[in-house]
Write a structure and sequence with these properties.
The protein is mainly alpha-helical. Helices cover 60% and strands 8% of the residues. It has a three-stranded antiparallel beta sheet. The chain starts with a helix and ends in a 16-residue tail after the last helix.
Amino acid sequence: MKREDEALILNTVRCAVMEQIQQLKRDEASANYGHNQANLVLSPVGLLLTAIASKGSRLSAFADYLLHGPTTKQPFGLVMVCVGLNGLPDDVRGISISQLARESHRPGPEIMNKLRRDGSILFIEEEFSLLIDGLTGDIRKGRLSLPISRAKLAEIAGRNKPKPIIKVIKVE
């Protein structure tokens, strides 16, 4: 009976996290749409300012912002499952890597590296779902019980190997 209860808890966690992931994906799609709409509106303004600026010797700060700020490439859509230091089922959530990247003005891989250095394990949606399937089977067979520590989860998921640090090189 205890095993079935724990398996049910894991499946409940999976459903809650997948709902978070779906909401984050909708939020990312909406943010991307808004960003693209702003670029469509500002693009003609940018072209006009470029033409005016090419006749003058200096760009104003506002013109520079309009020309370079809003039209720069922004990250959208990277959503992952994050398991924190307290493991499963207590410390798992969906997160938007793209939103964190936009808010901190840093590239997504840098955000992911920081989360990993802080002790989190990151999964894509499908990978997390498969992991929960395996964990549920192990719980039902009595090989595992809740809670599952972050260290045990990393071992099970094969995440104890050192991850390569992703370097972002800006090309100008």
